[in-house]
Amino acid sequence: MLDELQQLVDDLATELQRSVAVDDVAIQLLAASAHYGAIDPPRIDSVLARRADAAIVAHVRTFGIDHAVDPVHIPDSAELRTLPRIAVPLRDGSDLYGFLWLIDADPPVTPSELTMATKGARAITELLRHNAAELDDLQAQDTPLLAGLFGDDRERRDAALAAVTGPDRLGAGASLRIAAIRFRDGDDDTAEAARHAVTRSVALRQLIGPALVAPVGGYLAVVSRAGPRPPSAAWRERFWSTARAAEPALAVGLADQLPGESPAASFARAAYAADVAQRVGEFDGFACWSELGAWQLLFGLPWTAATARELHPPLAPLLRPEHRLLATTLLTYLDSGGDAAATVAALHIHRTTLYYRMDKIRDLVGSSWSSGTGRLGAHAALVLATRLAPAS
């Protein structure tokens, strides 16, 4: 499909003698022609990086392109270094498949050129519509396959694994890379629309290659071949930006199948990584299991205040709401490896204040947290209790 799309884009650019680009609904680049006439730095950057800058994406969306039926004129922006543009929605009825872009400068696009561009956009829309229909058919096949792959029935799981790693899907001997995408709570129609946006994403398929995509247990599972190395930062950024283009998308967790591990266990780790990515700010919505560090210790445990207390029972009095300041102090001290100077700097307090608080902590809960496994349990309990602030 991408070869056909590139040919349509190149033919239209030759006809217009203007640069043409096509993005999907996430404003991820699918195809771009050779440069004709005026270009700007964002055009060059998007072609080289295969994605648009987030600030530019936010800017163009303010002009209502996601709901437009007719071409939309977008003025230049000195701040963003952009020339004027025209966005032609690639729309078939209520279904939006992306946008065709023209630079509207040196000279501006004429009415006859816009008519030609609109005609070309119709052919591109039909190609993307046909591709989306094929992806919908694939998801209809993927849904029972992944349900079996991640299920408890061993016979069904073995049959699903044979199909998934067969020549028609991921290929023989494939080790699995599993992404779990979480969505915001909402009505069923909104969630279904979000899942469809990701499932139909050409940019995502282009990024990960052959894949199976289907809803599984409250997540959207994306199963592809694991590469020989962990995914790069650029790969993860493109994956996350594509996933969150479906507005209700909250977080992505990623896990590569370990040797001898069942696909269900791999999916459970990916789903947990998504939970951490959603609830822990430092991950900014995307977490790989392999990079969770100490957060792996909480895998399989309910994220509740009761769990925090059970992780280190002597610490329970410190976990009450009225002692939150002391709990934060001890957590920062443990995060800093017991370094008083680093703790003082992190909390922006005087060293004497730190010593006073540490004495109060010892008076309240003793010193069971100060060495060995006690420190490990106390640290985990404080992370759960203070950073996540779970309900009792």
From TrEMBL:
In terms of domain of life, where is this protein from?
Bacteria
Query: Domain named GAF: which ranges?
Result: 4-122
Pfam families, alphabetically?
A: GAF, HTH_30
The family database entries (InterPro entries) matched by this protein are listed as:
CdaR-like_regulators, GAF, PucR_C-HTH_dom, PucR_C-HTH_sf
Q: Describe the location of the PucR C-terminal helix-turn-helix domain by residue ranges.
A: 326-382
| Protein name according to UniProt | GAF domain-containing protein
Native species: Jiangella alba
Q: What is the lineage of its organism?
A: Bacteria, Bacillati, Actinomycetota, Actinomycetes, Jiangellales
